[in-house]
Amino acid sequence: xxxxxxxxxxxxxxxxxxxxxxxxxxxxxxxxxxxxxxxxxxxxxxxxxxxxxxxxxxxxxxxxxxxxxxxxxxxxxxxxxxxxxxxxxxxxxxxxxxxxxxxxxxxxxxxxxxxxxxxxxxxxxxxxxxxxxxxxxxxxxxxxxxxxxxxxxxxxxxxxxxxxxxxxxxxxxxxxxxxxxxxxxxxxxxxxxxxxxxxxxxxxxxxxxxxxxxxxxxxxxxxxxxxxxxxxxxxxxxxxxxxxxxxxxxxxxxxxxxxxxxxxxxxxxxxxxxxxxxxxxxxxxxxxxxxxx
Amino acid sequence: xxxxxxxxxxxxxxxxxxxxxxxxxxxxxxxxxxxxxxxxxxxxxxxxxxxxxxxxxxxxxxxxxxxxxxxxxxxxxxxxxxxxxxxxxxxxxxxxxxxxxxxxxxxxxxxxxxxxxxxxxxxxxxxxxxxxxxxxxxxxxxxxxxxxxxxxxxxxxxxxxxxxxxxxxxxxxxxxxxxxxxxxxxxxxxxxxxxxxxxxxxxxxxxxxxxxxxxxxxxxxxxxxxxxxxxxxxxxxxxxxxxxxxxxxxxxxxxxxxxxxxxxxxxxxxxxxxxxxxxxxxxxxxxxxxxxxxxxxxxxxxxxxxxxxxxxxxxxxxxxxxxxxxxxxxxxxxxxxxxxxxxxxxxxxxxxxxxxxxxxxxxxx
Lengths: 293, 365
Fold this sequence. Notes:
The complex is a heterodimer of chains A (about 290) and B (about 375).
Chain A: H1 2-30, H2 35-42, H3 46-50, H4 67-75, H5 77-110, H6 116-128, H7 135-144, H8 152-159, H9 162-173, H10 177-186, H11 190-201, H12 203-218, H13 222-227, H14 236-241, H15 248-268, H16 270-279
Chain B: E1 4-12, E2 18-27, E3 32-36, H1 43-51, E4 58-63, E5 66-67, E6 78-81, H2 93-103, H3 108-121, H4 137-150, E7 155-159, H5 167-184, E8 187-192, H6 195-201, E9 204-209, E10 212-217, H7 219-224, H8 229-234, E11 241-250, E12 253-258, E13 261-264, H9 267-275, E14 282-287, E15 292-294, E16 303-312, E17 317-323, E18 326-332, E19 343-348, E20 354-357
Parallel strand pairs in B: 3-8, 3-9, 6-7, 7-8
Antiparallel strand pairs in B: 1-2, 1-4, 4-5, 9-10, 11-12, 11-14, 12-13, 14-20, 15-19, 16-17, 16-19, 17-18
Helix pairs in contact in B: 2-3, 2-4, 3-4
């Protein structure tokens, strides 16, 4: 009986997994189709739309071609430019966030000062606020600073994001206070403790923050749309969201190239990512285990 | 080679907990001072204040006659061994030991020489490239000790360094630390809750309770002349027997009476008791298990008690006898044989009797 149960369970899980994987498989196989084939499969006139007719989804291409990849990587400069736009926006955010967050997190996790709890509470509140809530004040601030239509309009708010501080704090709280105290007795200044003890012991946190931050910022849509006016500065995430039927032929290959960096990041730091997500859950560990330095 | 002086030190934590109360203590150069007491008695807080890891709320702390209340831990030239070793997990044994030297900008050649030399002396030479997680508890403790020794500090501070080790290793490491003390001949301040460690290691013992110092003395004095009931009960295993008694005088003789029993006390003790006005007053009689003997049957001063339990330790037997709804513990030779439930005659060594005031709990004699 239990064997049958296990078999049913396995079949069910395989079916669910296939369902989850289907969009991915579809994207990969369709990226090797020719433009014409894609047009035939996915384009239809408005009448058909009214009748609610479904697309004809095909998994196996009639003829395998790399034409889509050629188009986006070589023929169309726009795609590559936007790819690099994304890189120029995301990398500084990730690097800045790692530096700023780990420093702030160390202070929150291991130092004791007046108003620390209130300040951290404010951080948590900010973290929980959706982007749309702070949109208007952010826009006004950036406008006053003369940063609208510049990459820094996206980079600065990204660098000082609250989530990174919160995540790194969870990692730094786990560093034994005795280690920090031993370093103090051994002759370290606060800065030396941070660089020589806290930072190397938070490697996992840094890696998971870098990955989570990369994925989050690589997918950003609202910020560039609002803060950038020059469409030439738009990142790839916007390009993909704006692909219409005239460019349908390259949509799948573009999606593959778009998700490639994230996929590589994920494969590289899968363990860190899981740890990062689990640490970002508020638990008892996060409640006042800080020590005075 | 350093002197540590604590003058009227108080420590009150942010949550209002008064951990150390008006503590004054002189620690001479090359002394091995052991702070002993139960959890929460303030011994670790005192050590941490000496280390500079805890701020002093009130009072003065001097190291080598220099006021160090506001001197950073790194500038006090001390080394500390922590209860859970506090090794840096991301560094090898070599780097752990060399870290303090690197921070003091000592050149690489000398660091290498010092670390290998100390590693050899603590038998860790072959494990220098290992990370802490690849070491056993005993090895980690050795590295922690090595890390402290290599710096050649003025004062060694140790916060219950053996409590995470198993019993066998604890005894071994205890001896190693004492040997180390004799070899280095520097000031050691050691915190423990284990009275055996305190007695076997220290040249001076500081017994603490509830933030107050109860007694400061060498191990033998602490054992022979405990200042109060707390010290008497803390030091010694099994602990001292305490019996509520009344001081009575019959003619020239003074007795301590409890229940239907009374024991004659020495003339010196009785003189003191009478002089201090304890006649007909309630006191607490204290006697260590080894100072009670099984008496001859015809001994008229002996008291007869029922044997409740015998613990055989191999090298001695511990007897538990019923006395006024309590137990009285007696240490006897292994050759002694008696069946549980039988009555035994006991005689107290009158010279070794302790008498404590019932109210203040301080030793009267």
